[in-house]
Amino acid sequence: MANKIAVLSKRPATIKTIHEINLTVEGTKTPLLSREAPEFKDYFNTIWKELDIDGKDKLL
After folding, report:
1. Which H/E stretch holds residue 38?
2. Interior angle at CA 8, CA 6 and CA 13, nearest 5
3. DSSP 3-33
4. pLDDT digits 0-9 by tens, 11-39
5. Residue 54 to residue 34: CA distance in whole angstroms
6. From the centroid of its chain, how far is CA 43?
7. Rounded Cα–Cα distance for residues 50 and 7 (Å)
8. Which residue pairs, CB below 8 angstroms and at least 24 apart, start in 27-32?
């Protein structure tokens, strides 16, 4: 899991935001344990909203 996540804008891409990720995980940090951290849900929801995915854009 990353300690920082950069959210990019649509093309041409520029950095919209950078999120510092601080999850409270005891022991060895693994992807499964990280998803169980109480903060994961908040980070997920915030970052997902910033992606501007509306279903209208199609990948080429």
Report:
1. none
2. 135
3. SEEEEE-SSSP-EEEEEE------SS--HHH
4. 898 999 999 999 998 888 888 889 999 99
5. 27
6. 6
7. 7
8. 29/1, 31/1
